Target: Lipoprotein
Amino acid sequence: MKKKFALALALVLALGAFTGCSSKGGSSASVSGSGSDAASSSSAQTGDLETITVGASSTPHAEILEQVKDSLAQEGYDLKIVVYDDYVLPNRALADGSLDANYFQHTPYLNSYNASNGTDLVSAAKIHYEPFGLYGNGVASVADIQSGATILIPADDSNETRALFLLAQEGLIDLPEEASAETGVTTLDIKDDHGFDIQAVQADTVPTQLANSAQGTVAVINGNYALQAGLHTEDALAVEDASGDAAQTYANVIAVRNGDENTPKIKALISALETDSVKQYIADKYHGAVVAMF
Model:
């Protein structure tokens, strides 16, 4: 009888111990996705990271930023990327302090935004250059563009200037001799449009408008919007001369509020981007549509 009681007691104790272990293991899995001590330690460390919040266009800027998340985490920073699909909101968010930096624009556009909005945003580093391309709907070469054809270009100040310089580079229009990127030009400054119908439209709509246009239409498209539309420099009828001033003038920059250029988090962000591994990623991923500037 004593033996039976002892055996029953042992079974109860063993069952209780097993149930306790199961309950503990289930709780750990629901919190971290793993019952390992390493996962819990990693989660605790992540909570200690200082956040760097950067606004970016989806392609290629956010894609490039994704490449440095791990290296920044090793330096103690959690990179949060906020993707925007226009050219106004990321500067507004940077100016009001919602972002630590943004990465989507070149210096002429940044200067134009500051002048129009009374902001004081500055470039902290030049990261890459996106050659503007001239693309056609059913047009094989610049020589095949017919007189009277519609040419679509982006309408915002600096990109309109850039598009018009590309058209002038290809002999499609004539601009005043004194025209420059610093002072800017618009369609009103064209001396001779050679019979083309040049239409300035919102930059992010240019690829769609070209795709839906009549045969023979051509368009100057920003590098990132061309990539989003599946277009590449090898598809272009013409691209900006990379040996000229365009690469430096229109390099895409990390923009910050004036005075933040040398803060530890911004210096860490720039150091993480300006590496051989990021340069190789850009070369392999974009095949000349994006060119590293470091």
Summary: Residues 1-45 have pLDDT under 50 and may be disordered. The first strand starts at residue 50 and ends at 57.
